[in-house]
Amino acid sequence: MLTRIDHVGIAVRDLERAVGFYRRTFGLTVVARETHEDQGVREAMLAVADEPAGASYVQLLEPLTPQTPVGRFLARHGEGVHHIGYGVEDVEAALAAIGAAGVRRIDERPRHGSMGASIAFLHPKDVGGVLTELVQAAPRR
Ligand code: CO
What's the pLDDT tens digit per position in 3-25? Predict the structure, then answer.
């Protein structure tokens, strides 16, 4: 069901500072910058791998305000790993199968994610404390 690790989501206080760090330290390149009002974040996606079998990314997340999920995460835990995004071929089918296995879903239906992907989050309490995201990537252009 899971095809790869699509991205690791990392909560940061200062997006530009974090982008600079990942650029200088690891030589990563920003491939997309987006603001998701519904999730309350500004983000940058940096490509780690861009293989034909599927790209993978570091997703740097800066909260738009303290009263957002990532804002509350930063207040509680400080900067660090926020969630893991796994690639799936069919996010609706994966959500149905995972729900049938008894895992609570934050998103009952897929919604729009980064770079045109269709995404859904699973409840961290049912995934060993890990906020888990399913990512059906947009068809490659
Ligand atoms: Co994500």
Answer: 999 999 999 999 999 999 999 99
